[in-house]
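stage 2 :: seqdesign
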C-alpha cells in the first residue's frame, strides 16, 4: 500500500494511526465482476487512530495498492485489481499489471479488501497452502501508515521508502496521524 502524504485525515486528539494487513482465503460466496476469478489471496487493509482506536473510515487523497500474484505456467494473462468494502461484492479497478514482477497496482480512495483477479476462463492458481508467494510488507512513513506494502519482503536500500518490514513478524505499523 502506498499512501499519499495527508491521505489519512487528521482526527482531533489522535497522534498516531495503525495499519493492519491481513491475508485471507477468497470467500467462496464472493461476487466478482463477470468474467473474473481470484488469483491468489484476498488482503484486508484496515487502519485505526491511536490512542483512541477509532477506525479510519476514509482516505482524503488517492493512494495505491500493490499486490503480488502467483506465477502460472504458460502464456501470461493480465490481472486486474478488485476491491470490496465487505469482502463479498467486488469492483474491478483500473490496473497496471507488471508482468515481469507478477505485480498489479491500482489507485484507491478507501481501505477494505483487495485481490488480484484473472479472466475466469483461465484457471487461477495459488502457491501450496492456498497463499500468494511472499508476505505483505510495509515501511513507516511520515503519515503514520506504511509508505509501501507489497509481497516482496526484501530490503532494497537504506532510504525511508526502501525500508520494508514483514508484518506477520513485526505486527502493526505505528506513526503520526497526517
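stage 2 :: out
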Amino acid at each position: 500500500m502506498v499512501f499519499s502524504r495527508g491521505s489519512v485525515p487528521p482526527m482531533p486528539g489522535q497522534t498516531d494511526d495503525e495499519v493492519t494487513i491481513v491475508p485471507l482465503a477468497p470467500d467462496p460466496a464472493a461476487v466478482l465482476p463477470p468474467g473474473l476469478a481470484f488469483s491468489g489471496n484476498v488482503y484486508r487493509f484496515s487502519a485505526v487512530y491511536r490512542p483512541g482506536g477509532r477506525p479510519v473510515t476514509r482516505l482524503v487523497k488517492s493512494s495505491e495498492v500493490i499486490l503480488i500474484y502467483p506465477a502460472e505456467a504458460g502464456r501470461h494473462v493480465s490481472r486486474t485489481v478488485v476491491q470490496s468494502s465487505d469482502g463479498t461484492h467486488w469492483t474491478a479497478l483500473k490496473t497496471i499489471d507488471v508482468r515481469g514482477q507478477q505485480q498489479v497496482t491500482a489507485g484507491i480512495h478507501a481501505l477494505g479488501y483487495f485481490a488480484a483477479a484473472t479472466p475466469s476462463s483461465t484457471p487461477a492458481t495459488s502457491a501450496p497452502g492456498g497463499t500468494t508467494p511472499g508476505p505483505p510488507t510495509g515501511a513507516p512513513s511520515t503519515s503514520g501508515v506504511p509508505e509501501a506494502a507489497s509481497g516482496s519482503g526484501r530490503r532494497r536500500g537504506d532510504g525511508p521508502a526502501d525500508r520494508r518490514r514483514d508484518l506477520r513478524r513485526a505486527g502493526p505499523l505505528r506513526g503520526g496521524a497526517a
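stage 3 :: structure notes
- Residues 122-171 have pLDDT under 50 and may be disordered.
- The CA atoms of residues 155 and 176 lie 23 Å apart.
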